[in-house]
Amino acid sequence: MPKLEQMPEEHVYQAYGIYLLGARHRLIRALRERYTPSSHGHRTWQSSFVLMDYLQHRPPRKRARIMEIGCGWGSAAVYCAKTFHARATGVDFDGNVFPFLKLLAGLNDVQVTPLHRPLERLTTRRLGEEDLLIGSDVCFWERLVKPMTHLVNRAMRGGVPRIVIADPGRTTFYEFAERCSRRWEVELTEWYASDPGRVCGEVLEVRNGAA
Fold this sequence. Notes:
Layout lengths: L11 E4 L2 E4 L4 H7 L14 H11 L7 E5 L5 H10 L2 E6 L5 H10 L4 E5 L7 H4 L4 E5 L8 H14 L3 E6 L3 H11 L3 E9 L5 E9 L4
């Protein structure tokens, strides 16, 4: 029988070795009185757990430079910093998500560098500094498909070895995956997470043969 681990207080839970906070946690409620994230940056989305499980089975190297695109609260970046000792960066166009990211990073005793920038302003040179780009639930609108495709193209030209994106399986995500496949080597895989509960989704991995 697995060891039962007591959570330190209410509305704190654990998944893939990191602590996370529910929407009713006192610190989350306090932050929401001052910051209002837009574009669904108001919780940890379940595709983040699919991404974590995928990376657990197909891990990056230790101390890699990892950037989470559209990070929101940054749970995947925190996971990478904790599990792989990654030099993690969380990117989002909404600056109101970063207090929540800072809170989760502090809770897990890791550092994640916030980068307040829209997708279009992530240059080939900046993306090329990373060993791995990750993201989850980043193609939830049709208007995000083209910018995300352009970002992948810039990252590949910049020499990023891997890009891993998780999604529940939206039509827009499949369109994004199809566009990527026209130019790059891709693998689209059904995947599920078992922690903190069973969650199913899809994972797109784009590999750079020139890296």
